[in-house]
Amino acid sequence: MYPARFRYEAPRTVDEAIDLLRAGGGEAKILAGGQSLIPLLKLRFASPELLVDINEVRGLDYLRADPDGTIRIGALCRHATIERSPIVAAQPTMAAAAPLIADPIVRNRGTLVGSLCHADPQGDWSAVVTALGGHVVAQGPRGRRTIDISQFVTGPFETALAMDELAVEAVVPAPRGTAAGGYLKLERRVGDFATAGAAVAVELAGGVVVRAGIALTGVGPATIDASDAAAVLVGSPLTAKTIAEAAALAGQAAQPRTDHRGSADYKRHVVTTFVERILRRIPQTEESAA
Amino acid sequence: MTSLFEEITGDADSSVPVRRVTITVNGQPRTADVEPRLLLAHLLRQGLRLTGTHTGCDTTNCGACTVLLDGAPVKSCTVLAVQADGHDVTTVEGLGTPGELDPIQEGFKQEHGLQCGFCTPGMMLTTKALLEENPDPTEDEVRWALGGNLCRCTGYQNIVKSVLWAAAKRRGEVPPAEGSTS
């Protein structure tokens, strides 16, 4: 399979990339890891006139933590880097998701920021960053702006990026307490898209949940922010009761469709089970939830 | 020099933007004029006649086309040839020679890690990257590392054994005798 013809540019700086995007006038597409875009080009689901390959731009492959614990992931930071990062090892929701992205070979090439920009309802990182309350930093001709993850994805495969903006960084804010949580994904085999997935992030201070986020993968037309489910956890310790409530509400928030991966009822059940399982595994709940 | 766009598109169209790339393939600099849409897998197979890199699914699933790009396994059907410009690529032809097999190739031979052989080049290159990073992997780590390479013949058992055999050989240990592994 060959992609349709396109022009190709490999800029060396972010500013050059933005100039090319602007000149492309909406017919240009950014190429980062390419693990979603190149298959789409081959299938001719996408046929941009111009590909702006940012792989030669220096200084975008970082993964770093600010002194306050904010995690910053550059546009060229590969999944494999995230998987091996000691910074991410201390962030349980990201650490759980990183080894479940696609397969090991794809992880050498694909990027977290690219995954967010691809805005596939089946994308794992989108759920993780949503649960963590993260945001995307976009850079364009008028400078930089911050887009909350809840505003970033505007539809399936659609984002709030203007045609001349490049997503340069994803940001996960510092936890207000001890970060806990996880990510669970049901897949038929390694590399398959999620039948259903759940990202859970809670922050605990003095045994009390001070922040919670729950987001769902593959069970709706976009990543689902199960904020009602997360809200019942905040303000009290994790108990069997709050866990069960959150899990049930997460199941209600899911909008699964019956397809070759399973029935809608089944997927909803998986969501409920996953949310409960992640919350029950958080150490302090061992006594209270038993 | 290889002009590859002609083979793919029939008569060369003067309006087609062609780029000259130089890629170090198995240690040798190779130069080609390519259309940007040419995939690395096709440059290797058709342009450079290195047909050890197999194209299986063509949809980023199977891993048969795996090569090493600057030492890391990538699916060469999902990398543009222009993206490899200035970089190092290792294909199965760069592993060993018929007279002097790489320990990984020897392992696949000793432990019968292949049947039809279609997935084998990709399996071996993923193995190479694994063993460079982790010379003494557990069986679990081997299975995890090979998660992106599909095999439809072996059921993977002998592939895992082959990798463990190669790892032992590379460490200078005496690998298990042929057929003696549990």
Structure description:
The complex is a heterodimer of chains A (290) and B (182). Chain A has a five-stranded antiparallel β-sheet with strand order 4-5-10-6-7. In chain A, strands 11-12-13-14 form a four-stranded antiparallel β-sheet. A three-stranded parallel β-sheet of chain A has the order 1-3-2, covered by helices on one side. Chain A contains 13 helices and 14 strands. Helices cover 33% and strands 25% of the residues of chain A. With 182 residues, chain B is an alpha/beta fold. Chain B has two domains: 2-93, Roll (Ubiquitin-like (UB roll)), CATH 3.10.20; 103-170, DNA polymerase, domain 1, CATH 1.10.150.120. In chain B, α3 packs across α6 (157-170). Residues 5-11 of chain B have low confidence and may be disordered. The chains are: A alpha+beta (290), B alpha/beta (182). Chains A and B meet through α2 and α6 of A and β5 of B.
Which keywords apply here?
heterodimer; A: alpha+beta; Uridine Diphospho-n-acetylenolpyruvylglucosamine Reductase, domain 2; Uridine Diphospho-n-acetylenolpyruvylglucosamine Reductase, domain 3; Enolase-like, domain 1; 3 domains; 13 helices; globular; disordered C terminus; B: about 180 residues; alpha/beta; Ubiquitin-like (UB roll); DNA polymerase, domain 1; 2 domains; six-stranded mixed β-sheet; 6 helices
Please bin the fraction of helical residues of chain A: 25-40%
Helical proportion of chain B? 25-40%
Total domains of chain A: 3
CATH superfamily label of the largest domain in chain B = Beta-grasp domain
Please state the overall shape of chain B, judged from the principal axes of the Cα atoms.
elongated
pLDDT average of chain B, as an integer? 91
The backbone outline of chain A, from C-alpha atoms, is globular
Q: What's the mean pLDDT score of chain A?
A: 95
H-E string of chain B:
EHEEHEEEHHHH
